[in-house]
Design brief:
The complex is a heterodimer. By secondary structure, chain A is an alpha+beta fold. Chain A contains six helices and seven strands; from the N terminus they run ααααβββββαββα. In chain A, β3 and β4 form a beta hairpin. Helices cover 5% and strands 43% of the residues of chain B. The termini of chain B are far apart. The chains are: A alpha+beta, B mainly beta. Chains A and B meet through α3, β1, β2, β5 and α5 of A and β6, β7, β8 and β19 of B. β1 of chain A pairs antiparallel with β19 of chain B.
Chain lengths: 178, 284
């Protein structure tokens, strides 16, 4: 049971010029962030309920808010998982997806059952430095997802056992200048 | 060897073999080639001077000099080339790095920058910018948006409704950038889309810059009562990571490109994950 009201309230507060332009004292800035976080937590339940209702099955949906620094406990650990891509725009959108993983070889299946071209590339040292002691993913899975207008599509991702020759070749291609 | 270049169906991005910095962008569809040098610089934040005691702070951007200092003259770089994505990783310093990225089929260059924690042990507040320098004849003009709605023409050292006596050559030419900034000549336009509101300017013809991060040591005495010195989780300053999307096109067709792409950035698809298999699903 949840509501989008909390996030609406936080967004209302965040319209204040201090929040927009960053001219608040630090403890006020911390409070803006806290209110938005609480609102987003509530909205995750709303989105999960909506997806379960539309899809007809109750899933244990998860949200990864640290994908920009390659942290997602689910994708790092699971052998099989589903990525739901919701597109709020009224036109088809192709989105490049990057997920932190620890395997070297994955299969990605599109909604129509077709295999999707994907690559596994190493997490950069820049990202490893930024996330410090958080997150353990050594690789990122990259593929392009397509989502219908104001709708969603789900992609099934499975870890494939065995050594990925392409990945080994890729690692060889990484080099530093003298 | 350092990275030389990356390419997809629409674009080719070349790098200077000596410095590793971005050197040129080519639009292969339109046969446009534009020399673009991109680097990160920092302005030394003013603590106030004899002319004016105004310090740079949360409300006020005021560098103590018009000159911006390069964070690095060159970068350590390496590249990754796959069928899905091609990337060049550039390391400017221990606190500034960037990935230049081209996804297959995408008509824009993605720059994902990571800046911070900004060092302040030298006692200097710093305002970090990403600057693009080109040979475009822009005649002091550049363009910024207002919340993605009206694009406004900005003219260096000029105000439309009064005679300006410019006393702050940098700060006096900075404008809010909510989603995009561009420069153009008669034929070619270079557009940069941001993923957040930033300050931006064109301090010289053919040049375009965006402020990506700042860390200051003095309060600007405008009411906040604190210097802009955010500690972050680890109490050594914030690290920020963001993206700039670069479009190179003709002046006529750029609007069609940047409006659609900015829409996609603003209302980006939302990812939700679930463990286990489950049938793939797409509503009809």
């Amino acid at each position: 049971n949840s509501s989008s009201y909390e996030l609406r309230k936080a967004m209302g507060v965040a319209q204040h010029h201090d929040a927009v332009s960053g001219t608040a004292k630090q403890h006020v800035t911390n409070d803006y962030a806290k209110q938005l976080s609480v609102g987003w937590d509530a909205c995750q339940v709303v989105i999960s309920n909506a997806l379960a209702s539309i899809g007809g099955s109750k899933e244990n949906f998860m949200f990864c808010t640290y994908l920009n620094i390659s942290i997602c406990p689910l994708t790092e650990a699971a052998h099989t998982f589903v990525v739901v891509v919701y597109n709020p725009l009224p036109r088809l959108v192709n989105q490049n997806i990057r997920l932190p993983v620890n395997g070297n070889h994955y299969s990605v299946t599109a909604p129509d059952g077709q295999a999707v071209l994907n690559e596994v590339i190493p997490v950069s040292s820049f990202t490893q430095k930024v996330r410090r002691d958080r997150g353990n993913a050594i690789n990122e899975l990259v593929f392009q997802a397509s989502s219908p207008p104001v709708g969603y599509s789900s992609y099934t991702i499975s870890k494939v056992p065995g050594r990925n020759q392409a990945h080994s070749k890729l690692l060889k291609r990484l080099y530093e200048p003298a | 060897p350092p990275a030389k270049g990356i390419q997809n169906e629409h674009l080719r991005v070349l790098f200077d073999p000596k410095t590793g910095l971005l050197k040129e962008i080519q639009n292969l569809d339109k046969s446009i080639s534009l020399p673009v040098s991109q680097n990160f610089f920092w302005y030394n934040a003013s603590a106030g001077n004899d002319d004016n005691e105004q310090a740079s702070g949360a409300y006020i951007f005021r560098p103590n000099n018009s000159k911006a200092f390069p964070i690095s003259q060159g970068v350590h770089s390496y590249q990754v080339k796959t069928q899905v994505v091609q990337e060049v990783y550039q390391n400017f310093s221990s606190w500034c790095s960037q990935v230049v990225r081209l996804y297959a089929g995408q008509p824009y260059v993605e720059l994902e920058w990571t800046v911070g924690p900004i060092p302040i042990r030298d006692g200097l507040g710093k305002e970090i910018i990403s600057r693009f320098s080109t040979n475009l004849q822009t005649d002091g003009r550049f363009y910024t948006d207002s919340n993605g709605r009206e694009i406004l023409e900005r003219r260096r050292d000029y105000r439309a409704t009064w005679n300006l006596s410019q006393t702050e050559p940098v700060a006096g030419n900075y404008y809010p950038v909510n989603s995009r900034i561009y420069i153009k000549d008669q034929k070619v336009q270079l557009t940069v889309l941001t993923d957040r509101s930033q300050g931006g300017s064109s301090t010289a013809d053919g040049s375009l810059e965006l402020m990506v991060h700042r860390r200051l040591l003095y309060d600007d005495s405008r009411g906040v009562g604190e210097p802009l010195l955010e500690p972050g989780v680890y109490h050594d300053g914030l690290v920020v990571r963001g993206r700039h999307l670069i479009l190179l096109d003709t002046a006529e067709s750029s609007a069609e490109q940047h409006r659609l792409l900015a829409q996609q950035e603003f209302m980006a698809p939302q990812l939700v994950l679930a463990p286990g298999g489950g049938p793939p699903y797409q509503p009809g």
